[in-house]
Amino acid sequence: MATIDLVKVGKNLLKSSETEKSVELLSLWQDQPVVLFFLRRFGCQVCRWMATEISKLEPDLKANGVALVGVGPEEFGLKEFKEGGFFKGPVYVDEHKQSYKDLGFKRYTVLSLVPAALGKKVRDAASKASAEGIQGNFSGDLLQSGGMLIVAKGGEKVLMHFIQDSPGDHLALEDICKALGISANAKAGQMPVCNDDVCTR
C-alpha cells in the first residue's frame, strides 16, 4: 500500500450530486470512518455492478458508524447512475480528477485499455452484471481507472488504499470489513466462470 498524504488528498474539492455544492474530501472522514469508492465512470457496466456489491455492506457500515461514499471523475452518466439505484450512499464528482491523480488511479492509454477491457476479470464481472440486469454505456472518459480509499475517523490513518490494475479489479466485501475491523452479514455475489457461452456475447 503506497503512502497517502491525507492532508494533500483531503484538500481536493468534490461536488455533491445532491446539493451541487463543493466540499473538501477531508470533510467526509472528519466525523466518522469512511469507505470511498472511486468509480471509473458512472456509465460503466462493471462499475455499476461493483457499486451494487459494495452497497450490500451499507447497513453494516451504517450500524458501525462508517460512511459509504461514491466518487466519480465526471458528471457523464451520473443522472442515469442515480436513477438506477446502483449505490446506497451519497455520490460526489471530482470534476478536476485531482483526487484520482493524488491517489495514483492510473489512466489507460487507448492501446492499454483494449487488452485490459477484454481481460478475464472484466468479462467475468460484465457477465455477472448482465445476469443481474445491470447494463452500461460508453459515455464519458473511458481511460480513467478507479479504486477505493478507506480512512479512519478524523483522518487518523489510511485503513485501505486499493488501486484497480484492470477495469474488473475490485476489493472483496470481506476485505473491506477486515480493514475496518467490523463483521458484516452481506454476502458477495458469485463471480461467474467465464466461458464461451457467457463471455463471447
From TrEMBL:
The membrane-spanning stretches of this chain are none
List the Gene Ontology MF annotations in alphabetical order: prostaglandin F synthase activity
Please list the GO biological process terms of this entry.
prostaglandin biosynthetic process
Pfam families xref list: AhpC-TSA_2
GO CC terms on record? Answer: cytosol
Q: Which UniProt keywords apply?
A: Cytoplasm, Fatty acid biosynthesis, Fatty acid metabolism, Lipid biosynthesis, Lipid metabolism, NADP, Oxidoreductase, Prostaglandin biosynthesis, Prostaglandin metabolism
The chemistry this enzyme catalyses reads:
prostamide F2alpha + [thioredoxin]-disulfide = prostamide H2 + [thioredoxin]-dithiol; prostaglandin H2 + [thioredoxin]-dithiol = prostaglandin F2alpha + [thioredoxin]-disulfide
Major localization listed first in the record, in broad terms: cytoplasm
Q: What is its EC number?
A: 1.11.1.20
Gene3D superfamilies, sorted: Glutaredoxin (3.40.30.10)
Q: What class of enzyme is it?
A: oxidoreductase
Entry's localization field: Cytoplasm, Cytosol
Functionally, this protein is described as follows: Catalyzes the reduction of prostaglandin-ethanolamide H(2) (prostamide H(2)) to prostamide F(2alpha) with NADPH as proton donor. Also able to reduce prostaglandin H(2) to prostaglandin F(2alpha).
Task: Give the similarity note.
Answer: Belongs to the peroxiredoxin-like PRXL2 family. Prostamide/prostaglandin F synthase subfamily.
**This protein's name:** Prostamide/prostaglandin F synthase
Q: Write down the species.
A: Champsocephalus esox (pike icefish)
Source taxonomy: Eukaryota, Metazoa, Chordata, Craniata, Vertebrata
